[in-house]
Design brief:
The protein has 538 residues and is an all-alpha fold. It has a domain of 129 residues. 66% of the residues lie in helices and 0% in strands. The chain has 24 helices and no strands. The chain is globular and about 70 Å long. 47% of the residues are buried.
Length: 538
């Protein structure tokens, strides 16, 4: 008779604790990514030195001065039109080197931002005040305050309760489960501005549901699991595009466009009215393409394979007990913030001020529902954003975007009477398919939105007509695991392969591009953004 027995703990695929973010394996970088990381630093240094001290740049021969700001005209008046000023050249060198570092991730993104900021000061591209105060930009404040409000939902468990309740209440079969997650993702996008936070909240729930339907990852993949995880990845990102507060990149795009057209702020309601219907249409197209065409569900995969599996979700919801007074207060605060955001055009209080009021109430002793130590603010992401905003300020101060756009389009042979549809197709296509190569939504925003603004100014079109459709494509970051943090997070669940995500992702990128073209011809034209549609058919 054994006197010492060891009871090995049996892995329970229906235990939500098994799917916490900290328990997921860290994805190893591919050999290509490792090589990029090795060569990124030296390449950025060489490129910076070459552009800043050895390049001969003289693309201003045929510059259209009507597209430039007064500061740029003064600079050109001092310089003549035979080349860039030293500030222009330094700004170009910093911009290209920063893009290399951000794409290759040779150093952490936040460190690249710090390098960008101090280099812009030392090269006299901008002053210390202009460089350093970007951390106090109103959009930076809105990001910080949004994290406080999101932390309130996480701490009080309102977001988890809502997701569990909705799935338990409406997730009766495979189709209703997919429909439920569509609704959940859209609602959470209105509340939570961090796509990674939404992924972390929903991941344990849809992993348990996948297990109920026989998909536990690894050797036990099936089309239900592939669809469930990939659909959530797609919906997490695309639903964020429906709201200007859906991500920090949206806020950056709104700030860039508002500054270019002379507005104080991009209205929450204006963005939502244009973007939300497009997001909803695309989400339902994605569901149909994924579940009906690319990864169709067999009859066996459409039925639970673990009897009583959904009961585990009911038990998880039951463990949370009755809704608490703290949760009710959190819901009231957030609904009030949303209502004020949605009606900003009527009361005139900015999004940042509304978020300030909500955060203050949420943090108030006895009245609020969260303490400072409960707040999860990713300062490394905020430092990264500060560097991006500083880079944007440098681009604006030197008018590098306008100068480069003129040079680029002249070099490509575009004439002054280039039709709108050619620019629309080129810019929206470049924006949406750039997500296959860029690892940061913020960087894509910082590159392509100013290009769209500059193109509109050069060719005499309304800035909104080109820049806004480009901005609506920011959240298309789901095709490959390195395209975004939610993509990297969900890839390690091992429910799908690179080939799976590439096949679904590229298909949806193409459909997304076609949809923005159609909407430019119809809906965006009806709203007054595209003057004659894209092709002028209607």
């Amino acid at each position: 008779m054994a006197t010492d027995t060891t009871l090995e703990k049996v892995y329970d695929p229906l235990d939500m604790n098994n799917y916490k973010v900290e328990k997921l394996p860290v994805r190893d970088k591919s050999s290509a990514e490792k090589w990029m990381e090795i060569i990124g630093g030296p390449l950025a240094i060489v490129v910076f030195i070459y552009i800043n001290w050895f390049s001969s740049i003289d693309f201003l021969q045929n510059i259209d001065s009507s597209t430039l700001s007064k500061s740029a005209l003064v600079r050109l008046g001092q310089l003549g039109t035979d080349g860039f000023s030293h500030a222009n050249i330094s700004m170009l060198a910093i911009f290209v080197a920063a893009i290399i570092l951000w794409i290759t991730e040779a150093v952490p993104n936040y460190l690249t931002s710090l390098i960008v900021i101090i280099t812009m000061v030392l090269t006299n591209v901008t002053t210390e005040v202009d460089a350093y105060h970007q951390l106090g930009h109103k959009v930076m404040w809105l990001n910080i305050l949004s994290f406080i409000l999101a932390s309130m939902l996480v701490k009080t468990r309102v977001a988890k309760r809502f997701a569990l309740w909705f799935i338990v209440r409406f997730g009766k079969n495979a189709t209703s489960i997919f429909m439920s997650f569509i609704f959940i993702n859209v609602v959470l996008s209105a509340f939570i501005s961090a796509t990674t936070a939404k992924a972390a909240i929903l991941l344990p729930i849809f992993m348990v549901i996948a297990a109920v339907y026989g998909a536990t990852g690894g050797d036990n993949k099936n089309n239900f699991g592939r669809n469930l995880v990939l659909q959530n990845l797609f919906q997490i990102n695309i639903s964020a595009s429906g709201f200007i507060t859906g991500s920090g990149a949206n806020l950056l795009a709104g700030a860039l466009i508002a500054g270019a057209v002379g507005m104080d702020d991009f209205m929450y309601g204006d963005w939502m009215k244009a973007a939300f219907p497009i997001a909803i249409i695309l989400i339902f197209i994605g569901w149909f393409v994924g579940t009906k065409i690319i990864f169709p569900l067999s009859p066996e995969e459409s039925k639970p394979s673990i009897e009583g599996g959904m009961e585990r979700l009911k038990e998880e919801l039951s463990k949370m007990g009755n809704i608490t007074f703290e949760e009710v207060k959190a819901i009231i605060i957030f609904l009030a913030v949303l209502a004020l955001w949605a009606t900003d055009k009527y009361h005139g209080i900015s999004k940042t001020s509304v978020a300030f009021l909500g955060a203050v109430v949420a943090l108030l002793p006895k009245v609020g529902v969260v303490k400072w130590n409960d707040v999860d603010i990713p300062w490394h992401l905020l430092l990264f954003s500060a560097g991006a905003y500083t880079l944007g300020a440098g681009l604006k101060a030197t008018d590098l975007a306008a100068l480069s756009v003129n040079a680029m389009f002249d070099g490509l042979g575009f004439s002054d009477d280039t039709p709108f549809w050619q620019l629309y197709l080129l810019l929206t296509g470049a924006m949406i398919f750039s997500s296959l190569f860029f690892q940061s939504k913020t960087m894509r925003t910082l590159v392509f939105v100013p290009i769209a603004i500059g193109a509109a100014q050069k060719f005499g079109f309304e800035i909104m007509a080109l820049a806004f459709p480009v901005a609506l494509l920011i959240e298309h970051v789901y095709a490959l695991p390195f395209n975004s943090k939610p993509a990297a997070l969900l890839y390690v669940t091992d429910h799908y392969s690179w080939g799976d995500t590439f096949k679904f992702g590229v298909t949806m990128l193409v459909i997304g591009w076609v949809l923005i073209i159609i909407m430019g011809e119809t809906y965006l034209r009806w709203l007054g953004y595209t003057p004659d549609g894209v092709f002028g058919l209607f």
